[in-house]
Amino acid sequence: MTKSELIAQLAAANPHLRQPDVELIVGTIFEEITNALARGDRVELRGFGAFSAKQRDPRTGRNPRTGEAVEVEGKAVPYFKPGKELRERVNGGPLQASDRLPVSGR
Q1: Could you count the other beta carbons within 10 Å of the beta carbon of residue 22?
Q2: Looking at residue 105, what DSSP letter applies?
Q3: How many other C-beta atoms are found inside a 10 Å radius of the C-beta of residue 92?
Q4: Any stretches that span the bilayer, and where are they (predicted)?
Q5: Which residue, 73, 48, 69, is CA-closest to 59?
Q6: pTM higher than 0.85, yes or no?
Q7: Per-domain residue ranges for the chain?
Q8: Virtual CA dihedral for 44, 19, 24, 47, nearest 10 degrees?
Q9: Domain 42-90, CATH
Q10: How many CB atoms within 10 Å of residue 30?
Q11: I need a surface site. Which of 31, 55, 65, 74 has the fewest CB within 10 A?
């Protein structure tokens, strides 16, 4: 699912919200997660998972064309750890009535 597909589905499920408002909400959520990771914070969404930034140490790599040794700087990389509920649903666990997302207007 792409970001635009997510926005379209949320807008369809919530007819009381205008599409530009849904775009703003989704964009704000993604921006806040990004900002938190850039600050080195962890973002936990209960039942979904946790986003964090893991630090990679500097290392000596190899240029694949020449085989020459190349120094690679340390860096932070985004990491996602799925929550238990998400793992169970992805792996075909039973869908409980409490697991269903409420849909407005129904």
Answers
A1: 19
A2: T
A3: 7
A4: none
A5: 73
A6: no
A7: 1-40, 42-90
A8: 0
A9: 4.10.520.10
A10: 12
A11: 65
